[in-house]
Amino acid sequence: MQARLRWGIVATGNIAGVFARELALLPGHEVVAVGSRNLDRAKAFAQEWDIRRAYGSYTEVAEDPEVDVVYVATPHSDHLGTTRHALESGKAVLCEKALTVNAAEARELVDLARGHGQFLMEAMWMRCNPLHLRLRELLDAGTLGEPRSVHATLGFLADYDPDDRLFAPHLAGGSLLDVGIYPVSFAHHLLGAPDTVRATGTLAPTGVDASAGLLLGYAGGAVATLTGSLAGPLPNTAYVSGTEGWVEIPADFQAADRLVVHHPDKEPEDVTVDLLGVGYTYEAEEVARCLRAGLLESPLVPWADSIAVMEVLDAARAQVGVRYPNDANGPDGPDGPGGGDSV
């Protein structure tokens, strides 16, 4: 591996800009290429972030010989095709969450990465956050006793626009894949895969979920109550309760630098960490660490976890009544029709 990890960014939306800004904080990382379906947008993005090469397609980024890792920041509907092409082009991939539109697509990408011997990681940056790693350590040390419940919410009011990626079915919009995935991944990190999934929600006029609430049940009796919403702001906090105490993570829990440990008859204990940037730096460093170690998957965001989270989201979507074109093997090529370029 090169002394500096050379990134190619696919798509030029908001999240791609955040990631480029975070990479600029890391001396061992460099963005060398960016691609968009609109060359002018790629050139503007390249100028803003001092990137040497701009391409008018996604495929050219993956085929650039100077790119070590492709960061896929397209809408969800394009994750499968874009990531597939990058893996087949011999590139490591960090793909934005949700990894794919459904669990079947996630399994396909995992099989492809394994078959080609290429690194693949879902960009669930929360799982690389030092505070969340510290929380896992507290649970493993028995600080809370036996975990019994998880409660987490994440939501905001999104202005309704049927053409926006958040509300467009052909782009796999909706609250579950955009914000609900954070509470679901949080619960999975602490409790594992559930035995039962119960979900209810509201639909936007386009048919995607505007909000969804989930109740997950576990074999040992633990439960998780999770909510994601595009229909209004939520506290965006998280709680983990055990037989001997509980932990509170203030808003915004997915990017927090502080949690509070509570025990009966004791003073609350603050646990804090210093974060570099907003937190995307840690997933980039995890990619670099894994590549240096010759790993194909990250221990912090393993393939099995990404698939298991997608299985929960699939079950919830089915119960809420949301179906995407990708569920019927719709167009998913890296530069195919019907896609978007903004996340």
Automatic annotation (TrEMBL):
Compositional bias annotation for Gly residues: 333-343
Keyword Oxidoreductase: yes
GO MF, one annotated term: oxidoreductase activity
Domain named GFO/IDH/MocA-like oxidoreductase: residues: 133-248
Keywords: Oxidoreductase
Span of domain Gfo/Idh/MocA-like oxidoreductase N-terminal: 5-121
Record-given protein name: Dehydrogenase
